[in-house]
Amino acid sequence: MTSQPLYDSVILAGQRGGVTPLSAMADVPVDILVPVGGRAAIERVLSALQACTLVKPGIVVGPAYDVLAASEQIRDVIKLYGATWLEPLGDPASSAIAGIARLEPPLLVTTGDHALLTDRLVDDFCAAAAALASPVASNLDVVVGLVPYEVVKSAYPDSRRTVLKFADGGLCGANLYFVRTEAGVRAFEFWCDLQRDRKRPLKIARRIGWRFLLKYASNRLTLASALTTLSARAGCRVGAVRLQEPRAAVDVDSIEDWRLAQRIVQESP
Questions:
Q1: Per-residue pLDDT tens over the stretch 15-27
Q2: What is the SS3 assignment for 171?
Q3: Domain at 8-267: CATH architecture
C-alpha cells in the first residue's frame, strides 16, 4: 500500500508584463509553456511533484486569469496533475504568501519554470530540510535550497549564474523553499518588503543592516551569519540545505538557460 505524500506545494507561475524575449523565441504566450525536451516547463514541474514520495502538486499561483482563459494547454496541465489554480499577485513573494495562506505547513514552494526538477531531487531536498528544521534539530521555520557554485561550474562551465558570495563559498539559488511552520511565511513577507523597496537602496540597507552589507561586500560574511541576521530581520528562523545536484540551480527564465536546459535533457540518460 502506497503512503500519501506528506507535503503540499505552491508553484509560482506568474509573469509580470507581456511576452518576454524567451516566450517570443519559443513562440508561447508565457515562459512556463516553454518546451524543454518536448514538454512545457510547468508540465515537467507538476509531473516531478506527482512522482514524489514526500510532495504532491498543490496550488499553481499563476498565470494571470486572462492568460489561463486563453490557454487550454495550461488549464489541461493543471487539471491533469490535480493542482489548483490561483490568481497571481504583483510579485513572486506576494504570490507565495497567497498560496501558502491556502495550505497548511509543512509545504514546498518552488517555481513553474524549474523544468529540470526531478522527484528524487525534490524528495531529497524535503527530507533534508525537514530533518534540519525539526524541533529536535534546529527548530527552523523555513529552509532554503542552495547549490555550491563550484558544483554548478563543474557541471556547466559555460553557464552564467547568479552567485551569492559568502566567505565560506559561493552559492546559487535553487528555487526550493521548505516552509515548516506558519511563522515561515514571515520570510516571504520580508522578501516582499525588500521587493517593494527595490528602487530605494537606502531603505533596503536600513532594513538589512549596514554592517551586514559591508561584511557581504568585503566577502567576510559567512552563510551561517547571514542566516542569523536574516532570521532576526524576518522574525522567523531561516536555515539552508546545500544541494549537490547542479540541475537544481537551473531554471528556465532566459533564452540562455532554455538552451542549457534543452542540452541537459538531451544528454541525460
A1: 877 789 999 999 9
A2: strand
A3: Alpha-Beta Complex (3.90)
Is residue 178 within 8 A of residue 126, CB to CB? The reply is yes
- Banded model confidence at residue 2, pLDDT cuts 50, 70, 90: low
Tens-digit pLDDT profile for residues 99-134? 999 999 999 999 999 999 999 999 999 999 999 999
Supply the mean pLDDT for the chain: 94
Half-sphere exposure of 11 (CA within 13 A, CB side): 32
| Nearest residue to 190 via CA among 231, 146, 144, 145 | 231
> Which residues are registered as beta bridge partners of 110?
11
Where do the structural domains in the chain lie, given as residue ranges?
8-267
CA distance 236 to 222: 19
C-alpha cell recorded at residue 62? 499563476
Tell me the whole-structure pTM to 2 decimals. Answer: 0.95
pLDDT at 1: 42
What is residue 175's three-state secondary structure? strand
Quickly list DSSP for 229-269. Answer: HHHHHHTS-EEEEE---GGGG----SHHHHHHHHHHHHH--
Helices and strands counted in the chain (H then E):
12, 10
Element housing 96 (H / E): helix 92-100
pLDDT tens-digit profile of 217-256? 999 999 999 999 999 999 999 999 999 999 999 999 999 9
Question: What is the CB neighbour count within 10 angstroms for residue 174?
Answer: 26
What cell does 146 get? Answer: 542552495
Determine how β-strand 164-166 pairs with β-strand 169-179.
antiparallel
Going by DSSP bridges, is the β-strand pair 59-61/84-86 parallel, antiparallel, or unpaired? parallel
